[in-house]
Amino acid sequence: VIIECVAQFRAYFPSFYYDVNTRTCLEFIYGGCGGNGNRFDTVEKCMAVCFRRQQV
């Protein structure tokens, strides 16, 4: 599994995350392995999820 993960880190997926300090969704390049719930395929998905959480 580790070998597969290392190979996947060579991937190049433009993605977005929510930055609590700036209260915006920012772009980053995801290498394709690991990650967390703060990674979105589009800025629209990021805003829809994170701005809703912020209002709660």
TrEMBL record:
List the residue ranges forming a coiled coil, or say none. none
BPTI/Kunitz inhibitor domain location is 1-50
Q: Which keywords are on file for this protein?
A: Disulfide bond, Protease inhibitor, Serine protease inhibitor
Q: Which InterPro entries match?
A: Kunitz_BPTI (IPR002223), Kunitz_BPTI_sf (IPR036880), Prtase_inh_Kunz-CS (IPR020901), TFPI/VKTCI-like (IPR050098)
- For the keyword Disulfide bond, the answer is yes
What is a single Pfam family found in this protein's UniProt entry? Answer: Kunitz_BPTI
GO molecular function list: serine-type endopeptidase inhibitor activity
PANTHER family given in the database record: KUNITZ-TYPE PROTEASE INHIBITOR-RELATED
Q: What is this protein called?
A: BPTI/Kunitz inhibitor domain-containing protein
**Native species of this protein?**
Nippostrongylus brasiliensis
